[in-house]
Amino acid sequence: MILEAQLKERSNNQCELCSATGTLKVYELPFTPATIKDDAIYVCEKCLAQLEKRDELDENHWQCLTTSMWSEVPAVQVVSWRMLNRLRNASWASEQLDMLYLDDDNLAWAKASGDHENETTVDLHKDAHGARLENGDTVVLTKSLDVKGTTLNAKMGTVVKNIRLVPDNTEQIEGKIEGQMIVILTKYVRKHNA
């Protein structure tokens, strides 16, 4: 893998996708063949969150790909191809994708992610009203719930502080009620705004 100092120098201390400055991080491309050593790019936090599907795609933000896709760095080209594919329903992204040329090896690397075949939506934990939930949030129950395996009944209106998101299931969170950690369905909570 390429070192962070080399990425800083190569990128001129800017995001290699959108040219933002500030807090930048190393993003190692997933699904990189073992033969490729230059498998990382330097990106801003906004790009990183959307690359890792931790945030919804902001189509306007990704207009930057119309410039970054022409980078001479194969890893930047591959990420540009992958992101353009995730945005392919937008006419501008589809047009750029038609213009982007990758050699056979880099195209195979880009396709390894499966972004060109998958649905482009990002699954996020959301409450009953569509508000995005995050680790550490406080929620309120919108329905009385019987907790399986116990005599505990969590009443509607119960406040659950410091929730944890269940990583592999966007319909579930974990929280403590009466000192007991339980799994709660997101459709039965609303985010508490203090």
UniProtKB/TrEMBL annotation:
Keywords associated with the record: Hydrolase
Domain PhnA protein N-terminal proteobacterial: 6-52
Single GO molecular function: hydrolase activity
Signal peptide limits: none
Annotated TM spans: none
Highest taxon in the source lineage: Bacteria
SMART domains reported for this sequence: PhnA_Zn_Ribbon
Keyword match Hydrolase: yes
Protein name: Phosphonoacetate hydrolase
Source organism: Chitinophaga skermanii
